[in-house]
Design goal:
494 residues, alpha+beta, 2 domains, seven-stranded mixed sheet, 28% strand, elongated
């Protein structure tokens, strides 16, 4: 039989299969047809089309992206954020810090121009139980009113309302400007001096802001803090060294040109701002790394089933010919996949991998409609997933992950249960441990009260506890929060 005869026969087979699929075949029958008539001929395929092309005749089937989403990590798209709220603590004494750091506040007003009222809005907090608009701040020319001491005469600083507003606003940037000294006028025993509680003190040194930071971080967002230190005479006529904080609540994957320009402006004023981004732990997969992973192996060249990267899912497909692996005895040769870890978080991290056989899940997915697959909620913790050790020597580390096929994989009978079809192994890359780094001491300062020198460490300790909360969330929701991506090996039987 010549080539054209074989090709015509194969086309007839596909056309016939499509016809029967559209004439009442069950999903199970379609699954069998697809395995026998497509996978057995073309191999396992992860392209942008449906896993099961025959199912498309009846309704939309599961796509490669939908399937791989269960085993990778969806990369959030960069979103343009056009709005920003700027909230100024206008309690007594704050004008001194504003005046000392005027280069910062003037840069903010320049970039977040108050004349653009639909985008950038200015508010204040003082002794009232709410956030209020700043009256008269309508343009850059009005910025001087932020230095006017007449606007800073309220006794108390009820700044909780500023942080509550900021933590619930993931659709915009919020800048809170404060010395982080909460004073609601309520007598409290929450102030410590020389190891003893001081009663009658109204300044609150508890970790009151913890819940706001925890909520913000758990939604994948970050803080960028510009601490500005200065010395000035206080109300007790003593020189006091303290900080004023420009706290930027920045939504996840936020893009804003004015914010980018502002960061450049502020770089000459505060050279080492404090970034707190607990979710900023990512794997970086490049085409060069993909080439390294298959170097020296018989990589599948067919475009549909070739090795490839799904960058939006942090997933890398390594496609290998199993007969060639056996023939060339690659069992002792590591698959060198130097997956790089980018860590901008406030944690010291450990990352490792687990190996799974997802062949059964892949073949079962062929009979699912898109709707049924989404309802199934398949992931690495599902009962259908088989944990194994077919990928071994996976080292725990903080920057690179390496892979090696187990000796048993490179044997002739390894694919016996999947003869003619092939097998799929997945290696889940995940965070195995987080240890919080030391919190920057600039988030704490001393001040004078009628009881003497007191330490305002509420900011620092609130951040510390919120980072502990985030770490606990990662641990409890390990599949969702801890997964960074995956390496998927397709072992083809041809």
């Amino acid at each position: 039989m010549d080539f054209m005869t074989k090709f015509a026969g194969y086309l007839l087979l596909l056309i016939s299969s499509t016809y029967f699929a559209s004439c009442g075949s069950t999903p199970e029958e379609l699954q069998t047809k697809y395995k026998d008539e497509v996978i057995a001929v073309s191999g396992i395929s992860f392209d942008k089309k449906d896993l099961n092309s025959f199912y498309s005749e009846m309704g939309k089937g599961v796509t490669s992206n939908q399937f791989l989403k269960s085993f990778g990590k969806k990369v959030d798209e960069v979103k343009e954020v056009k709005k920003a709220d700027i909230i100024v603590d206008m309690s007594a004494g704050m004008n001194i810090g504003i005046d000392k750091s005027y280069s910062i506040i003037s840069a903010i007003v320049k970039r977040f121009d108050p004349s653009h009222k639909t985008d950038y809005k200015y508010y204040h907090v003082d002794d009232e139980d709410k956030v209020l608009p700043i009256e008269g701040l309508n343009s850059l020319a009005d910025a001087a009113l932020l230095q006017n001491p007449e606007n800073y005469k309220k006794s108390y600083s009820k700044i909780k309302f500023a942080f509550e507003s900021a933590s619930k606003s993931s659709d915009k940037i919020t800048v809170v400007i404060t010395d982080f000294l909460l004073d609601e006028g309520i007598k409290s025993d929450r102030r410590l001096k020389n190891g003893k509680f001081i009663k009658e003190e109204t300044a609150d040194n508890s970790t009151w802001a913890r819940k706001y930071f925890t909520e913000w971080f758990n939604n994948g967002n970050q803080l960028l803090i510009y601490p500005f230190g200065y010395t000035a005479a206080n109300y007790y006529n003593k020189n006091e060294s303290k900080y004023i904080y420009y706290i930027f609540f920045i939504p996840n994957n936020c893009s804003n040109k004015d914010l980018n320009d502002l960061k450049v402006d502020l770089g000459s004023v505060v050279k080492d701002p404090i970034l707190i981004a607990p979710s900023s732990i990512n794997i970086k997969i490049s085409e060069d790394q993909l080439t390294n992973c298959v170097e020296g192996y018989n990589n599948i060249k067919n475009n549909k089933k070739a090795s490839k990267i799904f960058s939006d899912l942090n997933t890398q497909i390594i496609s290998l010919s199993h007969p060639s692996l056996v023939q060339n005895k690659f069992s002792n040769k590591s698959i060198s996949c130097p997956v790089k870890i980018e860590n901008l978080s406030p944690y010291i991290i450990k990352v490792q991998t687990n190996s799974f056989d997802i062949s059964k899940v892949y073949y079962n997915a062929l009979k699912y409609s898109e709707e049924d697959w989404l309802k199934s909620n398949i992931n690495f913790t599902s009962n259908e997933i088989i944990s194994n050790t077919d990928i071994e020597n996976q080292k725990e580390g903080d920057s690179l992950i390496s892979f090696k096929l187990a000796t048993k994989v490179v044997t002739e009978n390894y694919l016996s249960a999947y003869k003619g079809y092939g097998k799929i192994l997945a290696s889940r890359i995940f965070i195995s441990d987080l240890q919080t780094k030391a919190i920057d001491n600039r988030l704490s300062w001393e001040f004078e009260s009628k009881y003497g020198t007191m330490v305002n460490n509420s900011f620092k300790e609130s951040i510390q506890l919120s980072l502990d909360d985030f770490k606990s969330t990662v641990s409890k929701n390990s599949n969702d929060k801890a997964t960074l991506g995956s390496i998927i090996l397709t072992l083809h039987d041809k």
